[in-house]
């Protein structure tokens, strides 16, 4: 299996269901999906590399449906992964889940970021602070920024009907990165594994509602 094969099938589904890709050609991005493998943390340009057993494969899709946008990222291991990769994925899922749980009316973006980073650090991993979640709705990227670090009580106040993404990127290595020659793929300097799980949520009186499930 390759990223290009996945993208081809995804393209058929997107077209058949009346959606449009929100990321292809966005600021010049060349692919329909972002498929980031192993030490590629984000914005991986789709290619024809065959997945290998143990690869940590992150697939991000952002869609436009009648002028409304959604953005999400899921992760799978190709075949069987090692214990470190399995833990990385579980910590990543937990970081996103706890960030969503912290997204309550009256909280702040600093509360969300602090909660995420505190959880990730407790499990001996690190967040990539340069990448954030974002407001979403009639545009793909809007305010506020939803960081994966912060100080409680700081930042923007969370209010009812606010919609945004929660999408920490984590690694069990050093968080330093470079941009690959394709001008998009975010590559870890130490080649350590990375993971990202992203959801789009909307804030309601009864709590956060996940829109991308």
Please provide a written account of the structure:
The radius of gyration is 17 Å and the shape is globular. The model has no long low-confidence stretch (mean pLDDT 97). The longest helix is centred in the middle third of the chain and has 19 residues, at 83-101. Helix 2 (83-101) runs antiparallel to helix 3 (109-122). The strands form five sheets. Strands 1, 2, 4 and 5 form a four-stranded antiparallel sheet that branches. Strands 3-12-11 form a three-stranded antiparallel sheet, with no helix packed on it. With 213 residues, the protein is an alpha+beta fold. The chain has helices spanning 3-16, 83-101, 109-122, and strands at 20-21, 34-37, 40-42, 56-65, 68-77, 126-127, 133-135, 142-146, 163-166, 169-171, 177-179, 186-188, 194-196, 199-204, 207-210.
């Amino acid at each position: 299996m390759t990223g290009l094969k996945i993208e081809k099938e995804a393209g058929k589904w997107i077209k058949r269901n009346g959606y449009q890709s929100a990321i292809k050609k966005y600021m010049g991005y060349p692919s329909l999906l972002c498929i980031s493998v192993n030490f590629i943390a984000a914005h991986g340009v789709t290619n024809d590399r065959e997945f290998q057993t143990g690869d940590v494969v992150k697939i991000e899709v952002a869609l436009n449906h009648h002028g409304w946008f959604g953005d999400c990222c899921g992760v799978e291991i190709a075949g069987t992964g090692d214990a470190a990769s399995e833990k990385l994925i579980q910590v990543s899922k937990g970081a996103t889940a706890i960030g969503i749980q912290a997204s309550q009316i009256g909280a702040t973006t600093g509360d969300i970021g602090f909660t995420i980073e505190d959880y990730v650090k407790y499990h001996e991993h690190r967040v990539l602070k340069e990448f954030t979640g974002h407001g979403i709705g009639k545009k793909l990227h809007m305010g506020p920024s939803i960081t994966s670090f912060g100080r409680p009580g700081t930042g923007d106040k969370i209010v009812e009907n606010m919609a945004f993404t929660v999408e920490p990127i984590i690694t069990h290595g050093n968080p330093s990165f470079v941009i690959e020659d394709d001008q998009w793929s975010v590559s870890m300097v130490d080649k350590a594994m990375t993971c990202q799980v992203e959801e789009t949520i909307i804030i309601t009186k009864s709590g956060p509602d996940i829109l991308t499930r």
